[in-house]
Amino acid sequence: MSEPNATAHEQRALKYSVWGNLSLGVLGIVFAALCHSDAVLLDGVFSLINFGVALLSLKVARMVMRPTDDRYPFGYAYYEPILNLGKGLIIATVCLLGLYSSAGALFHGGREIAAGIAFFYAISASGIGLFITLTLRAFAKKCHSPIVDVDAKNWLLDTVLSGIIAVALLGVYLLENSRFRDWAPYADPVAVMVLCLIFMPVPIRIIRENWAQVLGQNVDAKLLKDAREAMANYLADKSCESHQVRAIRAGRFVYLHVFLIVAKDATWPSSVEEQDACRRAICEQLKPTYPYLVIDVMFTHDKVWADQDLLS
Predict the structure, then answer these.
(1) Helices (H) and strands (E) in the chain, counts
(2) Per the UniProt record, which residue ranges are transmembrane (predicted)?
């Protein structure tokens, strides 16, 4: 898919996510007020927070596609992992607050809720969330957008959250109509605590991956392996003494830095055209897997240029 088409699909997906989060957020707050359930409130707040983040995602998605300038000579790509890092921190914070609130409720006799109203909300939210999750996943595959991919993960989290809330609320209803009715007030806070503990690994993984990208670490072993294989395949019949490959990812963008050490009496490359042909061949091999590829290929006789670092 061409970059303009990919960008259009990405913007469409993010707008879809914005309105979906706003709708479910408002719905969750209204139903939480009606049924007095912290589990429903958590679900609604989660959607409203995602609504705010989705608005930021729209801006960042446009920003990272801007051309380089004097202020940002290497582009705006690092805004993407910064945004995703923020998303992970927000999700983790919501989970911790939900855990704290529910623990407090348990120590104060639980919480009486209108289980029937809350159950209707949870079932409706699960169905809507599942539909939007599948739609965003399809968009993410089409446009290769990490922002949309993280949004799809957020929606999956919210959908499963709503589904488990529905099961918990069904349990509350059954408890209220059984000889164990005295335990019913504890079901809502226990459900929130279990949900928070189950889903905490999701934001932790998002935080870890995107923090590493912000620091400039290569967290994608496959990327480096693919880049080295592409170079080795191209150089199989070339007179190249050695080569070094460095690769990092910043959001959707992949930066590939290649040094080729050639002997002074080497017959290849004999011209700038042959150097450009090398760059073109590497791009063509890697672009299908890494569509947002930025590549630098440097030719040198002296290995010291390939070995240098910032402290050299």
Answers:
(1) 10, 3
(2) 16-34, 40-61, 82-101, 113-134, 155-174, 186-207
What are the pLDDT digits (tens) for 2-59? 556 777 888 888 888 889 889 999 999 998 888 888 778 878 887 888 888 878 878 8
- Break the chain into its structural domains and give their ranges: 3-214, 221-307
Q: What is the DSSP letter of 67?
A: P
User: Within 10 Å of residue 237's Cβ, how many Cβ atoms?
Assistant: 8
How far is the C-alpha of 128 from the C-alpha of 24, rounded, in Å?
8
Q: CA-based diameter of the chain, in Å?
A: 91
Q: In whole angstroms, give the CA distance from residue 123 to residue 116.
A: 11
Tokens standing for 186?
């504890």
Q: Which CATH architecture has domain 3-214?
A: Up-down Bundle (1.20)
Q: Quick one: how far is CA 189 from the chain centroid?
A: 29
